[in-house]
Design goal:
alpha/beta, five-stranded mixed sheet, 44% helix, elongated
Length: 435
Amino acid sequence: MDFIEELKWRGMLQQMMPGTEELLAREKVTAYVGIDPTADSLHIGHLCGVMMLRHLQACGHKPLALIGGATGMIGDPSGKSQERNLLDEATLAHNVACIKEQLARFLDFDSGADNAAELVNNFDWMKNFTFLDFAREIGKCITVNYMMAKESVKRRLNGEFQDGMSFTEFTYQLLQGYDFLYLYQTKNCKLQMGGSDQWGNITTGTELIRRKLGSDNEAFALVCPLITKADGKKFGKTEQGNIWLDAKRTSPYAFYQFWLNVADEDAERYIKIFTSLDKPTIDSLIEQHHTDPSARILQKRLAEEVTLMVHGRENLNLAIEASNILFGKATKENLVKLDERTLLDVFQGVPQYQISRSLLQGEGTKAIDLLAGHTSCFASKGEMRKLTQGGGVSINKQKLTDPMQLITEADLLDGKYILAQQGKKKYFLLIAKAD
């Protein structure tokens, strides 16, 4: 496959330096994307860059994933309104290890192929580089005028943001430029890729290579557009915060639901960017979607592909099962499979009642007293009796046939919860608390 053509039809190419396409056509190219290890997990805002590396490798080129163990101690000012908190070395080491494990789901690191991916950490080559050596060897190559002309710097210095810019952050583009120089010299890496907000930092690297090594040393830059939602809002953010790749931060169910619920217009773009499905398959899915948008074929396939890639088949199946609990014919067995995090994600927003655990101890409490006395799941005991007779009441997805049935600790899900249901779609979550 032709990498540039692949990016173009997927909507993943915004800008590249002249000569980039010719370079990729004539040789196997080593290229890198930098990832800032400010957390111990990637979030979906990182995925476009990671997918660029994935497509690059599929096209026969060699991807490098650069973890900014050193630059992460400073923080990139691009697009930021204030300086970041600096991380200590131990935290960064932990974050790097976690991110490497996640990247292995997208890239082939271990096959032994000549284009196998490599993970590099700029802390390895920066940790023994003294400030004086850096100033002598690198600082003299790039003028302050050049650095101040970058958009990310100008916005901070021209008073758009109140806090200005520290010298620490001002040096960031030079440090990132040195990464490119180092990889160019040690890994024959000729291309750096990233989001469009990185254009200034990346081109500083190409300029540093030219000035340090001579004008016959060519390096190239390529950036993808920043991904937004159809309404113009930032991609990957919800009211609860980032959508993380780590299952402990964002459950596979919540992850699956994010993709399942994207707008139609977004689904058409995202399925090209965030999956490896080929063009004929995607074109066919889009055509089917236009024929019957209500079936949400695009969203379902998008959610399946990305969740499978990030969380694996077993977690995908559990996410689909969990999704069916609210809207499908789920059973108690489906409910029991849910861990606490997923259970709370599935029933987020439904009315919740706290009950005393002592009510369920011993013989327990009659369902009618629990749901229409100790809680207000039903307006009255008479209403509950009537609905129970009509088959309209369930406890933990099992039909309640007798309102006098005893509910005990054995009925608790995950040792803490009881799910009551009125009709098909009205749910209540009871949380048993110790006295």
